[in-house]
Amino acid sequence: MNYLVIDGARVVSVHRTLASARSSEQQGLGSSTEPGPLLDGKPAWWSRARRNDGVAELGILRSDATELGFRFELRACQAPAGSCRHSACGTYTTWAVSRCYELLSKLAAFVPLSWIWVGKRSDDPRGDAPQFLAEGWALIDRLTAEMQESLRVVELLPADTRTLDERAQAAHALVVRFLAGHFGPAPGPESVVVRPVLHGQDLHLRLDPFSALPICGAVLSGRGTDATGAELNAHTCDQCFGRAPIDPPPVLTAAEYEAWTAYIHQSGS
User: Fold this and answer.
1) Tens-place pLDDT, residues 144-169
2) DSSP letter at 170?
3) Which residue in 65, 131, 136, 207 has the fewest CB atoms around it within 10 Å?
């Protein structure tokens, strides 16, 4: 069991002892002194007075308070780069929900600009399914090992020649794919349609009906027009058509990914 320090529903630090959690709070959040209901003979959480209006808010939470209806969310910021301070960010996507804080926090370590949030919410059995938990821990173990530089003889090439940045990007993509596979919608194989969209002279691809944005994630000013994909003098987007990496990688379900790759292979991109 751990003690989680909460600021505006976001987990900001994790501690093995209550004393350590209280010490962390004193650095600016204010002290959480009002105990919540008992769980196994001890308070499940402690509240602090909110700095603006004095209303109590959740301050320190035991990680086993899931028994009282709390759930953890892995949220990733979706705001355009440079437009968000990433403090209580309101432009986010919830990628996973689970009782298991430790699993979500370790997955979040591979996803830039992501955090764990907590609150009372309806249960989501997908995040507590044995298959999700087993596959999640296996993925964490694999990626953790891949991110470590192993000792080797200087004259020999490393077994993995990728740079750490390249490994981090690959790990990010694998975690996104993993979470989308477990938490993404499950449309039928015929329900995902790849639609070309012409914006000025730029030709993008959009997955219909699930996203208003093109696959590359670009925010198109004004309205794009439906296209056939064969427009003369149009410049096809390298990211949408699979010729350049997308950073961050798009969150796609298996059906969406298959429809996208089938389209770009058919078009000869």
Assistant:
1) 988 886 665 566 666 667 788 888 88
2) H
3) 131
225-226 vs 193-199, strand pairing mode: antiparallel
User: Tokens 């989501």 appear where?
Assistant: 124
The closest alpha carbon to 113, from 29, 163, 183, 176, belongs to 176
Span between the terminal Cα atoms of the chain, in Å: 51
* Tokens of residue 234, six digits: 């149009």
- Quick one: which of 141, 260, 261 has its CA closest to 195? 260
The dihedral of CA 209, 215, 221, 226: what is its sign?
A: negative
Cβ proximity of 182 and 126 under 8 Å: yes
CB 147 within 8 A of CB 164: yes
Give the rounded distance of the alpha carbon of 202 from its chain centre: 29
Residue with tokens 């960010």: 89
Question: Strand 42-43 and strand 56-62: pairing?
Answer: unpaired
Alpha-carbon gap, residue 196 to 236, rounded angstroms = 10
Rounded to 5, what percent of the chain is helix, strand, coil? Answer: 30, 25, 45
- Amino acid, res. 67: E
Sign, CA dihedral 16-137-9-79, equals positive
Question: Rounded distance, CA 63 to CA 15, Å?
Answer: 10
- Closest C-alpha among 181, 186, 73, 69 to residue 132: 181
Q: Is the dihedral of CA 171, 123, 5, 8 positive or negative?
A: positive
Give the separation between CA 79 and CA 82, rounded to whole angstroms. Answer: 8
Rounded CA-CA distance 179/104 in Å is: 10
Q: Please tell me whether the peptide bond between 196 and the residue prior to it is cis, using omega within 30 degrees of 0.
A: no
Distance CA 237, CA 50 (A): 47
